[in-house]
Specification:
Blueprint (H helix, E strand, L loop, with lengths): L14 H29 L11 H12 L20 H11 L5 H4 L6 H11 L2 H12 L4 E5 L16 E5 L2 E12 L6 E9 L11 E7 L5 E6 L12 E12 L10 H35 L15 H31 L5 H26 L10 H10 L7 H13 L2 H21 L17
Parallel strand pairs: 1-4
Antiparallel strand pairs: 2-3, 3-7, 4-5, 6-7
Organism: Lasiosphaeria miniovina
GO molecular function: acyl-CoA dehydrogenase activity; flavin adenine dinucleotide binding
Keywords: FAD, Flavoprotein, Oxidoreductase
Length: 451
């Protein structure tokens, strides 16, 4: 809630955002978390899981709209469609949304729609906005983002092979995609697809383009929905899809041919920080479940409550430290985005993207361990949370890609650091001479004897 905003950023949060944050927290705790179980029950079984969506979602959306909780993610100052919150302010709200499976969709701030709406808001033309952005922002339809491919190492987007070929007054697409998140939902009406329009371009970053493909276009086949550690994520789903001579109008090209990398970088930056924001909330909820378990008077292994075993309180303390530290990394990235834009905040976004999921997995794992067998079952939300967050170490670029880039950038300071250290050592030598003392062997003190 607003009273819990870290003091380091509190002055940057408007009164309106603080009030909204309190409403978000109450909505999540009192409406969304209890509705998570209803959502699971209403999905159904078998093929029915992909044929409709739970009614509870629509009911929650109606409540959210009456509370003024809608599309909070579009940052102030960057989009005319923005509700007027900064990345920092939305980050504080998204943390609460991350505590519930249904909360983000209930306020129309769920992935991949948020990233796709940002693409349309930032790069789409008026016609594209009217046809697709408006119904997405109104919550009338959903969308999917198609980038990853099974036959190539998609962590390097230059490897993408989906062909997008100009043919008369349209484009024809051929290829396959997987991990097409959102493609299983019957409300999914539009795919945002990345492919190659100019594979021979000497600049590998100008070979790709992004195009809008209606999900009911002829030639599209959804072969299967991939599971995440056994969870199918119905009705959202992660589709394995092929395109065979899929034709769309030339007007569906976003921004222009060869602009794909520019668009995707503009999309993935905010997407990564949104995931990190929600993941902080998931970690908080895992800690809450652990606190409940270790204080349960009916659970007394070896004659003591769990909280009375020394290692357990250490888990609690470490979890508190790790969550609070990770939160500051996320909020720092949000502030940098607000002040200088996502492109200038790539380092800070990458730090949050790598650090936060690893932190959350550690906290969730401790909570699982405190529950014993129940922790890996469906009787708590912990197993599902762990599975979902584990995917974030792969989604929007695996950790290793971000770490390599961060390491490369950090290493560029090597020459300057070496010069600085050598200058400091030279000055130290002059000072030793001046004060007539000499440096002893490593690990011992400076001798105060005369030279």
């Amino acid at each position: 809630m607003s009273a819990q905003i870290p003091i380091a950023v509190r002055s940057r949060v408007s009164d309106r955002a603080k009030t909204t944050l309190d409403v978000v927290a109450k909505f999540v705790e009192e409406e969304c978390i209890p509705a998570d179980s209803v959502f699971d029950a209403q999905i159904g079984e078998g093929d029915a899981r992909w044929e409709s969506h739970p009614q509870v979602i629509d009911d929650l959306k109606a409540k959210a709209k009456t509370l003024g909780l809608w599309n909070m993610f579009l940052p102030k100052g960057h989009y005319k469609e923005s509700p007027g919150f900064t990345n920092l302010e939305y980050g504080l709200m998204a943390e609460w949304l991350g505590k519930s499976r249904v909360a983000s969709e209930a306020v129309n701030c769920a992935a991949p729609d948020t990233g796709n709406m940002e693409v349309l808001a930032k790069y789409g033309n008026d016609a594209q906005k009217a046809q697709w952005l408006k119904p997405l922002m109104d919550g009338e339809i959903r969308s999917a983002f198609l980038m990853t491919e099974p036959q190539v190492a998609s962590s390097d987007a230059r490897n993408i092979e989906m062909k997008i070929e100009k043919d008369g007054n349209g484009y024809v697409l051929n290829g396959q995609k997987w991990w097409s998140s959102g493609a299983g939902d019957p409300r999914c009406k539009i795919y945002i697809v990345m492919g190659k329009t100019d594979a021979r371009n000497t600049d590998p970053y100008q070979q790709q383009s992004v195009i809008l493909v209606p999900s009911d276009t002829k030639g599209i086949t959804i072969h299967r929905m991939l599971s995440v550690y056994g969870y199918d994520d119905a009705p959202h789903g992660h589709g394995h899809i092929t395109f065979h001579n899929v034709r769309v109008p030339a007007a569906n090209m976003v921004l222009g041919e060869g602009r794909g990398f520019e668009i995707i970088q503009g999309r993935l930056g905010p997407g990564r920080i949104h995931h990190a924001m929600r993941t902080i909330g998931a970690a908080e909820r895992a800690l809450e479940w652990m606190l409940m378990r270790i204080n349960d008077p009916t659970k007394t292994p070896f004659g003591k409550q769990l909280r009375e075993h020394g290692v357990i309180l250490e888990w609690v303390a470490k979890s508190r430290l790790e969550i609070d530290a990770a939160r500051l990394v996320v909020l720092n990235a949000a502030v940098k985005m607000d002040e200088e834009g996502p492109k200038a905040a790539l380092k800070e976004i990458a730090q949050a993207k790598v650090l936060v999921p690893q932190m959350a997995l550690t906290v969730i794992d401790r909570a699982v361990q405190s529950f014993g067998g129940a922790g890996v079952s469906q009787d708590t939300p912990l197993a599902n949370m762990w599975a979902q967050i584990r995917t974030l170490r792969l989604a929007d670029g695996p950790d290793e890609v971000h770490l390599q880039q961060m390491g490369r950038n950090e290493n560029r300071r090597g020459k300057a650091v070496a010069i600085k250290i050598n200058e400091q050592r030279a000055k130290a030598a002059r000072l030793l001479e001046q004060y007539k003392v000499r440096k002893t062997e490593i690990g011992s003190n400076i001798q105060r004897s005369k030279l």
